[in-house]
Amino acid sequence: MSDCSNVEIREALPELLHGRLDAIQAAKVREHVARCAECAAELELLDRVQRVYSTAPAVNTAAIVAALPRPRTRRAFSLGVLRAAAAILLLLAGGLIIRAAMTGAENGKASQVVGISQDTPGVTLPRDTPVTVERAGQPRVLAMSLSELDDLDADEMESLLSALERIDAAPVAEPDTLMGSVSGVGT
Amino acid sequence: MEAQPDRADDRDDRTLIERWLGGDERAATAIVERHATAIARFVSTLGERETDEVVQDTFVRAFSSFDSFRGESSLRTWLFTIARRLVLDRRRALRRRPATESLEDVELASGFTALDSIVAVEAEGQVREAVERLSPTQREVFTLRVGEGLSYKEIAEVVGTTEGAARVHYHNALRTIKDALYV
């Protein structure tokens, strides 16, 4: 069996077989094959080989999937974004806590939930202000200054955000569940 | 004449990988179902008898490394590359093992052994015999080109050679098969 001298067409035969040519290219190759005995024979041979190869050993996909590792879920945000979010939430939480604490103090109730050490109460806290948040009857949740945010890794940051979100979720006008006083304020 | 890459398939693969990385375990099943048969077919042509094991190891290795998969080649090409490396590793391990079966026997045992259970018409039997006469590299290149429809560029990536060398191997293989079938 001799070879056709048109190398370009011969090179395209496997592509034609697998439908990887666009319509114009495919038409051009088919047109050539229709009038070229060598290329027609070669295409037939390739088709025979391809049919032999189209059969494969049975594969148990369920067993393969069962053996695969579990996906490691990606973090939705970068560490920088998490730090910024934590800083904002800390400030918000600070304001919330101070407000709740003052409400509690006005009501004459005991300080058992929150303590923020700061000489002057206010929403804007200096960068190195230590912030301490406690829930009644529970271990301390947070104790840190804003500058310490830089030292947290992603896991710690997410944990902090999670804790702050829980605090933030507590309604402001509910002194019985979130009440107390600001330690160092008015003492 | 340039073949049109299967861009839609590649996009689907990338979407499935992203879904899996995002925690969607069902995407794993879709990925395996899309490629397992082709990988098994390729592995069997390399003369590997434990096709199931190699296919499974291929996917385990791929899924363990999806974080580093950059999508510069298609997923299928990447899977072929992993499968081929695993087969070579197994052969090397076999060489180091005290032989109960000679390496020559292993080389002679063509990948088509895995297809023995299939009822073979005579014409198919002749094709198999012709392909078995090829050198291991020629067989790899030829089956990837004709059996899987890979381009020379993709074949070069899988086999670790150049596009030019892949082209030469393909034409030499085709000449050998024509001589075997049409003398």
Task: Walk me through the structure.
The complex is a heterodimer of chains A (187) and B (183). The longest helix of chain A is centred in the middle third of the chain and has 28 residues, at 79-106. In chain A, 49% of the residues lie in helices and 7% in strands. Chain A has helices at residues 7-17, 23-35, 37-53, 61-67, 79-106, 154-169, and strands spanning 114-115, 130-134, 140-145. Chain A is built from 6 helices and 3 strands. Chain A is mainly alpha-helical and 187 residues long. Chain A starts with 6 loop residues before the first helix and ends in an 18-residue tail after the last helix. Chain B is an all-alpha fold and 183 residues long. Helix content of chain B is 70%, strand content 0%. Chain B has 9 helices and no strands. In chain B, helix 3 packs across helix 4, helix 4 (75-96) packs parallel to helix 8 and helix 7 (136-147) packs across helix 9 (163-182). The chains are: A mainly alpha (187), B mainly alpha (183). Chains A and B meet through helix 1, helix 2, helix 3 and helix 4 of A and helix 2, helix 3, helix 6, helix 7 and helix 9 of B.
State the main characteristics.
heterodimer; A: 187 residues; mainly alpha; 6 helices; disordered C terminus; B: 183 residues
Structural class by secondary-structure content of chain B: mainly alpha
Which range does the strand content of chain B fall in? under 5%
**What is the number of helices of chain A?**
6
Mean pLDDT of chain A: 69
Low-pLDDT runs of chain A? 109-120, 133-143, 168-187
| End-to-end gap of chain A | 104 Å
> What percent of residues of chain A are in strands?
5-15%
